[in-house]
## 1
Amino acid sequence: MRTAAFTVLACTTAIASVCTAQTAPINPQADAILAAALQECVTEVQGSDPQAPVPVLEIEPGAVTWVALSDLDEKDDVILDFNHILCSQDYALWHGTGGSIIHAVVDGERSASWSGGIWRVDEFYGSPLLLIGRHGTACDGYGAQPCVQAISVYEGGFSTVRLPQSNEEDAGDD
């Protein structure tokens, strides 16, 4: 059973007066990412003003989602979606026009992150595939242009196409 361990950690670490209802799972890498986010939140808010209120992480529904990235049989991997994780005293800290940080944590030990607004896990010929809606400039376009990045997971890490080129573009270079 997944428990509320991180909320307790966040509340006691920051000596916060307010805690959030949704909590992160017990997962070493996910907890480390959230602990680093909390530290960044505190540093950003109180770095220039030590008298500022102590911030907390506001973890909204949708922030922590169990998914199957390493295999399709078991949902033992985690997506931490910072579109739903906020610094209580600096809501813009991880958020911009291209969305926010999306962390994929596999087997509780390894992770990678991308920026995006939306995501979903799909299947490609029996293998899990993480799809992330990115800012249009990630596809050499404009901000609101549809742009989707596909990421697959393998034993050594994560793989994706870096800078795709179409055959038409290649043909024009001759």
Note: Residues 5 and 89 are 23 Å apart (CA to CA).
## 2
Amino acid sequence: MKTIKLTFCLFIFVSCTSQTSQNNTSSIKEEETNIEKNSINTVYIFENDTIRQTVELSLCNEKEIAFKLISQNKQRKQESKIEGIAKNKGGDIELDEDAEGNAYPVNEYIYEKECWLAFRIDRDTKTKMRINEADCDLHNLYCPFASVDFLVKR
């Protein structure tokens, strides 16, 4: 009887470890899929005589984007950088206005770690974005993270 119980327990243990191994394999496949998604970047740029702002975005999933924001002051030859994961705010549709006063819907992604950033991306065409910033001591005053004007998809 002990032999049967021991065999049965061994059988359960082996099948559980086999299931865990299959779960780990599916987790690894999901991570690889996310890495592939993250490797597809969208780049938005604003540039004038003084400032160049560049944002690289990668889709992590439906609710999150990975970003890298670089703000450069060309005259002072200074730069500020920040990167992280921003989460979709959700809720009601937000609206922004262009220079002519035309309203357009945006998807807003919020980053709240070292400072507060809001990436407001044109929902329909995804060709332009604005960045709002608050409580951020990370950047040089001459290299702001908040957008000076629209950043345009390159």
Note: Residues 5-37 have pLDDT under 50 and may be disordered.
